[in-house]
């Protein structure tokens, strides 16, 4: 069952309005990172030891990350022994509860005018998937960058929709790798 949920998480993280979350080591020199490789068993980390990602989803995630790092950022995929950084990823699924409560007012009751309220409550359970991508400095073996995105999961997608969803999610997560420096605004006093 958990295997299915992880596949769903990766597959169904769609173009939701959630903004990715990033964190990074300010002391890392990201301009030195030109090559990358995958951590062995990248999808099996301590955070997701009970989860397995099927071969189709594994391939989609790796292809999307490889394309982003290679084509968008100009990095080269190399043997792990020669890589500047190692890439790792993991996914998780959590259940969330959405509760809506609203009051319904009315003006007459049993022949009298006045106010009264009836409270209606509805609850729906849904699944939220999270995809996390880690960048590790191979030389120091230290995490230097982490990006994550979570989103409400959609069901019943075609393979093409799954691939597009993964591609968009990975691009969104990696949109701040390497971290963008804060632009300084010059203020002139006249």
Explain this structure.
With 190 residues, the chain is of the alpha/beta class. It has three helices and six strands. A six-stranded mixed beta sheet has the order 1-6-5-4-2-3. Strand 4 and strand 5 (112-137) form a beta hairpin. Helix 2 crosses helix 3. The longest helix has 18 residues, at 55-72. The chain is elongated, with a radius of gyration of 23 Å. 26% of the residues are buried. Residues 1-17, 44-52 and 182-188 have low confidence and may be disordered.
Provide the β-strand percentage band: 35-45%
The share of residues in helices is 10-25%
User: Which residues form runs of ≥5 with pLDDT under 50?
Assistant: 1-17, 44-52, 182-188
For the record, give the distance between the C-alpha atoms at the N and C termini, rounded to a whole number: 67 Å
Largest sheet: 6 strands, mixed
Shape: elongated
Radius of gyration: 23 Å
Number of strand segments: 6
Mean pLDDT: 78
Main features:
6 strands, disordered N terminus, disordered C terminus, 6-stranded mixed sheet, 190 residues, alpha/beta, 3 helices
Quickly describe the structure.
23% of the residues lie in helices and 38% in strands. The chain contains three helices and six strands.
Chart the SSEs and their pairings:
Elements: H1 2-12, E1 21-24, E2 35-38, H2 55-72, E3 76-77, E4 85-109, E5 112-137, E6 142-152, H3 159-173
Parallel strand pairs: 2-3, 2-4
Antiparallel strand pairs: 1-6, 4-5, 5-6
